[in-house]
Amino acid sequence: MAGSSRTRSVARLVGVGAGLVGVGALAASYFYDDDQHTKRQYIRVAAAENLNVRPTKPLPTRDQQLKSLTSEYFDVLIIGGGATGSGCALDAASRGLKTALVEMDDFSAGTSSRSTKLIHGGVRYLQKAILGLDLEQYRMVKEALHERANLLDIAPHLSYPLPIMLPVYKWWQLPYFWVGIKMYDLVAGKKCLKSSYAISKERAIELFPMLKKDKLVGAIVYYDGQHNDARMNLSIALTATRLGATIANHTRVLSLLKEKDENGKERLCGARVRDEVTGKEMTVKAKCVVNATGPFTDSIRKMDNQVTKEICAPSMGVHITLPDYYSPEQMGLLDPNTSDGRVIFFLPWEGRTIAGTTDTPCNVSHSPAPTEDDIQFILQEVKNYLNPDVEVRRGDVLSAWAGIRPLVQDPNKTDTQSIARNHIVHVSENGLVTIAGGKWTTYRSMAAEAIDIAIKACDLSPVHQESQTDGLLLEGAHTWTPTMFIRLVQDFGLESDVAKHLAHTYGDRAFSVAKLASLTGKRWPIVGRRLHSEFPYIDAEVRYACREYAATAVDVIGRRLRLAFLNTQAAGEALSTVVNIMAEEYRWSEAEKKRQLEAAVKYLQQEMGQNVNRASREKTPVSLSKSEISENVKRFNSLDTDKKGYISLNDLRASLKARGQDVPGEILHEILNEIDLNHNGQVEFDEYLQMMAAIKVGSISHSRFAQLVEMAEEDQRKKITVDRSGGGL
């Protein structure tokens, strides 16, 4: 059994540090020269300095990054800011190559932020490797288990071991699964996180009280890693720029540039790009271009050669977010055999429960959206494993999202029809290096292989021929400790849950975030105004996100904070605050603030499940009895006192005022919007009935509007009772 991740990390760092000093000069790193605001330069670091020393210089601004794109001649230009592209940038920069990275959207905007949040070797892959005597599949698992351990070492603040339960409902499966999971531990060897174990039915119910008891005979518990995928992706990109890489998000590649070499052969020499924030176009010159664009692999390949054959076979995976009471805080669940043969994970994450994933062929899209069929499939599988006492309701889906897996055919093989089981690296005739396929966990080894091949294919001269990233600490990991949050509480006066969130999200950079926090005006907490009462996100994080290249409100609610993935309604409620803070940072006009709000609302509706949630509610048949309809008429009329036929904002305000409650206008708008299906600022009776029917069948979990109507009707009934008694004793 392995020791703590911190112990492993220290041991690994000693080895890495010694190796680097022995080799000689370390990788190039550039720093912004405060005396010359118009240029950045590469400075060779002294031989004795370690790559794992915590950088102290501030990050270059986005404008400085863009200026560097046009003023430098790069060894490597990487297209794509997902996990693989950012990994390539870090690998190249740490070897001493002049490196640039451009991403058309935000870092991790695509598949890399829409994963199952697991860092794993793949239990299912190992099963296939053993049963099929497949050596290639075995090596894939072995590599992934090494990378799993490494990722937990280099970003201990962002990643952690998670126990996952595999419930067993047939006696013969208990030894079968136990042997399989023990093989998983065995293949991991010294990289095993914690040893797996078998437990009785009683112990399984104790650890996972929501589990279905009927026919349960026991369970196997094993360990994999879990992380905040979007933050991990950003940390990789930030670490790359700390080591000298120029990185620019919201920078779209328009075309690839070519020139003839000394032999008259065309070779790629850079790209024409456009800053999507300002619309400015620019030329980026580079000796080598790496295509790491995931599902968009073929679009870049066709820029290199219009007639090249497409190799990407995209597949869409949907996940849903459920309330925290659907799973224990520290135990996940694996359904190894769903009704259609797929695997479903059911995991605690960021204070909520996520479930997924599905696997459906799809078209490549910049805005993949979840479907009702996929959501229903996941809910049904969840229901199959939970106690009947736990009512699995459609209305409990807080968020739903889709990610596109970039499955690829290997163009290096003659049989290009078969899907590659692992990643592929391909070099075109013009020198375009394409890295595609693979999975989140193995991003580092994929990147290392891609840069190895790029060095040879494009005749590059790195300071270090070998990859330096195994054991290289990521942004925030250098001085992080598990008890760091206590210092944040004591030094700044933050609430404990906020301090824990900051420490586990930003690591040792959490102090820089806390310094930006606003005073609350309360005795406690002293600083840190929450963006939403249900979550530990604070105002300072929005300001800090702007320093970490967040350019849009979607960048913040979707990736810098994970609010959109955790609860779309809460994200919508926090949106105006987020936009106002960003407007202060970027000096946005009122028109730009409106544009940002509209774009973020569209994102929540289309990509995070609001539209499909609303459609599900609207399709609910109004199957109410006569007595239920009669009761709802009374409740509706208790607010619609002047018999207009609808309930307005003023009706809500008057009802609350009568109860002695003064609720801010923006909250009243939120309550009204929960039910105002046609967005006309008023709730008609048919809309109210639709909501009550949806609540009855579970399509809506709860509603503040329904609660207000019920309270108003109760107040009216009490008033009538007192009036009839004459008000006396």
Automatic annotation (TrEMBL):
Its main location: mitochondrion. It catalyses: a quinone + sn-glycerol 3-phosphate = dihydroxyacetone phosphate + a quinol. Its cofactor is FAD. Keywords: Calcium, FAD, Flavoprotein, Metal-binding, Mitochondrion, Oxidoreductase, Repeat, Transit peptide. The keyword Phosphoprotein does not apply. Residues 627-662, 663-698 form the EF-hand domain. GO terms for cellular component: mitochondrion. GO terms for molecular function: calcium ion binding; glycerol-3-phosphate dehydrogenase (quinone) activity. Coiled coil: none annotated. CDD domains: EFh. One of its GO terms (biological process) is glycerol-3-phosphate metabolic process. Pathway: Polyol metabolism; glycerol degradation. Pfam families: DAO, DAO_C, EF-hand_7. Its EC number is 1.1.5.3. Belongs to the FAD-dependent glycerol-3-phosphate dehydrogenase family. This is Glycerol-3-phosphate dehydrogenase. It comes from Chionoecetes opilio. The gene is GPD2.
